[in-house]
Specification:
Elements: H1 10-25, E1 29-39, E2 45-53, E3 56-61, E4 64-68, E5 73-77, E6 82-86, H2 98-103, E7 108-118, E8 121-130, E9 136-144, E10 149-157, E11 161-172, E12 192-195
Parallel strand pairs: 6-12
Antiparallel strand pairs: 1-2, 1-11, 2-3, 3-4, 4-5, 5-6, 7-8, 8-9, 9-10, 10-11
Length: 196
């Protein structure tokens, strides 16, 4: 269902659907990414890694690990020796670039902007603008259409904050340990564990 006043460019839709189908067809996905956040184009770059298999995922960034086992979200801070356990609210995967791939279907006007060179890749440039005010001015997605993979995401907020996720490495269909997406309490004996 399309939102009121929402326009989705057919070319952009084909590209995004291709990426979405590609990710979902894999047993699991892994990517390493660089995340920058700040006003203007400034902001310190931090490296993160993201694993996903179906709806489960694991994210490592800035000394924090987040695991979603399909039921609950576990946020583990090594610095603070704290674990927070919560039911998913839908906003957990804010770091997941995959979120935007499907979210365009609801509440964004989507335009195909042409080709742009991103890190040596001739990427398709897609601009997403929210139909109603959600704090985001617009989001730029850059896609390697040949491989049906997201290369880079730029999110511009109303408060002039810019968040950039640049994906540097992809691995698909690895033989991951079954414990990749599980939280084992025994490993966190001296942590403060809070269940929300």
């Amino acid at each position: 269902t399309m939102g009121f006043g929402q326009k989705i460019d057919a070319n952009a839709k084909t590209i995004l659907d291709g990426v979405s189908t590609n990710y979902k067809s894999k047993k699991n996905n892994y990517f390493k990414f660089v995340y920058r956040n700040g006003s203007g184009t400034a902001g310190k770059a931090v490296t993160g890694i993201f694993y996903s298999a179906g709806s489960k995922y694991k994210l490592n960034i800035m000394g924090t690990e987040q695991i979603f086992d399909g039921n609950k979200v576990y946020s583990i801070s090594g610095d603070d020796k704290e674990v927070t356990i919560a039911k998913p609210t839908g906003s957990e995967t804010m770091f997941s670039p995959l979120n935007y791939i499907d979210s365009y279907k609801n509440g964004y006007t989507v335009q195909y902007m042409g080709k742009k060179n991103v890190g040596g890749i001739n990427a398709d440039y897609i601009k997403m603008t929210p139909v109603s005010n959600n704090g985001i001015k617009y989001v730029n997605l850059f896609v390697n259409s040949a491989k049906k993979q997201l290369v880079k995401l730029e999110q511009f907020s109303e408060n002039n904050e810019v968040a950039v996720i640049e994906i540097s490495k992809y691995i698909e269909n690895q033989n991951l340990s079954p414990s990749t997406f599980t939280f084992n309490k025994a490993n966190y004996k001296n942590y403060l564990i809070t269940e929300l």
